[in-house]
Amino acid sequence: MSKNIADIGAEAEQAAADYLVGQGLQLVTRNFHCRGGEIDLVMRDGATLVFVEVRARSRTDYGSAAESITPTKQGRIILAARHYLARHKLDAPCRFDAVLLQAGSLRWLRAAFEA
User: Fold this and answer.
1) Are 42 and 35 contacting, i.e. CB atoms less than 8 angstroms apart?
2) Which architecture does CATH list for 1-65+97-115?
3) Which of 7, 41, 47, 73 is 20–30 Å from 95 (CA)?
4) Bridge-partner residues for 94, per DSSP?
5) pLDDT given at position 52
6) Is pTM, for the whole model, over 0.85?
7) Given CA atoms 113, 89, 12, 79 in this order, what sign does their dihedral have?
8) Measured over all CA atoms, what is the biggest interatomic distance in the chain, rounded to whole angstroms?
9) Per-residue pLDDT averaged across 5-32, rounded?
10) Are 52 and 26 in contact (CB under 8 A)?
11) In what order do the strands lie in the sheet containing 26-34?
12) Are 49 and 42 in contact (CB under 8 A)?
């Protein structure tokens, strides 16, 4: 039986979280939603709050995992990050990372884009 997209996404997010924890980051929360955006993982890297976009691709017909993080998608992530910071009354240094899972490999892009 094939997996549905939600299962694949959840597995990719778990793999990304496990990898980042193994690299010394701390998981703060998963799947933060607000009107207009979502953040897959919120992590801490020392004093820095890290908003992580997880992208999984089994095929490259429609572009790579990195290419799928378009400027529009980045804008939605930045919007959600601003909501997260406001909701939790946080004033911390922030970074936007991406974890890309494609063709059986995992790639971590620190500071993948900026707000």
Assistant:
1) no
2) 3-Layer(aba) Sandwich (3.40)
3) 7
4) 49
5) 98
6) yes
7) negative
8) 46
9) 92
10) no
11) 26-34, 37-45, 48-57, 94-102, 105-113
12) yes
At 64, list the tokens.
């790579």
Structure tokens at 62: 């429609």
The pair of three-digit structure tokens given for residue 56, joined into one six-digit string:
């999984």
- Pair 54, 16: CB distance under 8 Å: yes
The C-alpha torsion from 91 through 70 and 11 to 90, rounded to 10°, is: 10
CA 90 from chain centre, in angstroms, equals 19
Identify which of 95, 98, 114 has the alpha carbon closest to the alpha carbon of residue 45: 95
Amino acid at 37: G
> Alpha helix locations (H) across the chain?
5-22, 71-87
Tokens of 40: 């897959």
